[in-house]
Amino acid sequence: MIAGRLLENQARRESNARTYPRSLPLALVRGEGVHLVDAEGRTYLDCLAGAGTLALGHNHPAVVAAIRAVLDSGLPLHTLDFATPVKDRFVQELLGLVPGGLDGDIRVHFCSPAGTDAVEAALKLVRIATGRRTILAFSGGYHGMTAGALAVSGPVAVRAPLGGTTSEVHFLPFPSSYRCPFGVGGAEGSRIAVRYVERLLDDPNSGIPPVAGMILECVQGEGGSNPAPDDWLRAMRRLTAERGIPLIVDEVQTGVGRTGRLFAFEHAGIEPDVVVLSKAIGGGLPLALILYRAELDVWEPGAHTGTFRGNQLAMAAGAATLREVVDARLDLHAAAAGRHLLEGLRAATAGSACAGDVRGRGLMVGVEIVDPAGEPDATGALPADGRLARVVQLECLERGLLVERGGRHGAVIRLLPPLIVTAEQVGTVVERLAAAVHAAERTRGAR
């Protein structure tokens, strides 16, 4: 079989650090819209979408046409950070969409083509601009796998082998209705989180040196599709602004319409000082950048650079994606489809003892799988069950549905379908995932 041979070759030749083929053993040959086809001819409904990269799904005509136009133009594909017509159009398109006070006096910096490098640039920028070193980050957050980005990320297991990466980072509690870090849940847990940060920042004995910046996600993606309350986001913006602390919002996974607005921070009506963008901003091709207030633009030429920051194909694909998202109002479609998905999953799993929580924003949804035989915590949440979530993921695969796992212990089934997903396809996702959850429960009961 072709798939078996390709997977065997991959296992023999590629790094032990490879990830997705271990949980989703697929050899892919074709993609169109929300569907993928493997080497054996089987079709899957793709709710992974390149980890949220493919806002328009696979091989969208507008993206393919934009890429072909660049290839046919004779433009150099590798341009470092030289000016080009494609780059100029992309920047103009992007800046025309940035809301609030950021759209006036703003700078763009292109980074090496991965979100983690853009996070590195953002951290470097605020440290240089403020002359301080300490960064405030949040438990459950994830910002990338390079040393600086990893230092501000919550997962300890991948950070521990490196040692010493968090000496200038202080982690704060991220609010959660289901797994409240203060054991009270709901709006009160969010209010306590705000008071905790405020008192910490104003306490001369807190042990925290002067702060260079705060970095957060409006919806924690790898952290388990966990949305921050809007009031909490507004409070973080107020606290940082009052103390002259630049606020970095990581929109790598939430940007370009995924949460129901073009940028996730728009839901709370805040204006960050720095915005980190990657994934969907390149239309499915590698591209990463930061947007930031001009007053922070005090670093010297070459302070953050990279060879592949002039990806013309990605800029063309990104501009086409932005135009399509805006013209088709796919942000609003994502909001409506996301509500349909949330409501459908909550109803379909209501009788399941192992579906602990269904949450998310827009088309960024998670189902936390729990151990129904475990001891509940103070707010009634049962222990996360990563092994059972793995069974659910495999049951989804058997039913032609691709999903990812995330969150603590890998216990959250994460759904990131393309923004073009239809109501009928959302219904299919609900049906297949609910069937997978119930099948996994039967498997657990049989043990």
Mean of all residue-level pLDDT scores:
93
Structural class: alpha/beta
Low-confidence stretches: none
Strand order of the largest sheet: 4-12-11-10-7-5-6
Q: What percentage of amino acids are in beta strands?
A: 15-25%
User: What CATH architecture of the largest domain would you give?
Assistant: 3-Layer(aba) Sandwich
CATH class of the largest domain: Alpha Beta
Brief summary of the model shown:
The protein is about 35% helix and about 15% strand.
Describe this structure in words.
By secondary structure, this protein is an alpha/beta fold. The chain folds into two domains: 65-327, 3-Layer(aba) Sandwich (Aspartate Aminotransferase, domain 2); 332-403 and 439-447, Aspartate Aminotransferase, domain 1. The chain has 13 helices and 17 strands. The chain has a seven-stranded mixed β-sheet with strand order 4-12-11-10-7-5-6. Helix 5 runs parallel beside helix 10 (312-327). It is globular. The chain starts with a helix and ends with a helix.
Brief descriptors of the model:
alpha/beta, 13 helices, Aspartate Aminotransferase, domain 2, 4-stranded mixed β-sheet, 7-stranded mixed β-sheet, single chain
